[in-house]
Predict the structure.
Amino acid sequence: MKDKIVLVTGANGGLGSYVTRAFLEAGATVIGTSRKIAQSEFPSPNFTAIAAELSTGNGARVLMEQVLARFGKLDVLAHTVGAFAGGSSIADTDDATFQKMLDLNLNSVFYVLRAAVPLVRQSGSGRIIAIGSRAAVDPGTGVGAYSASKAAMVSLIRTVAAENKDAGLTANVILPGTIDTPTNRAAMPNADRSKWVDAASIASLVLWLAGEAGKDVNGAVIPVYGKDS
């Protein structure tokens, strides 16, 4: 990934930190963004921290303007931003919860894609990889708002794949099962973690899709369910 400019959203999150480190170890120049992120979180000369609010169109636009001004191009977008809310049936889901899932899981990716696609197209071999959820295609009880937001996200990514293949740009989405992160461990202390998905495995797949070996994969919806598949 030498000479590649990579933007990782949610870079210091449970999965995002693995993705960020994977790209840095592969020699990429990585811009890590989150609402709050510090340069010191990834002590590498190839890392640049830029705080941004991606739940608004203006926030995403300003971020891409900063990327273009400082680096001149963008080769790879790895979007790991997301949030989970569950526990209520559709009939009992309140407006605030439904809107929160749309804001964090759907609107954010729309704003980022709208701002980033023109830059990534210019690469000639651009890559967009987004992290969705198994719930997008395999919804369960009590997670209707979350599942709906992730399903709509899949549709956006596949549309980008279709609209930009003429520019050599690929766009794919990974659908993990429950990921083994500190946040999930704290939220589900009694769960059987042996069936969870290793965050490092997902990061490796993101890296593969972003590289030369993944150039022929476009518009794919890739299940990574771990031992619970």
Remarks:
- DSSP finds six helices and nine strands in the chain.
- The helical segments are 16-25, 57-71, 95-121, 144-164, 182-187, 199-210.
- Residues 5-228 form a domain with the Rossmann fold fold (CATH 3.40.50.720).
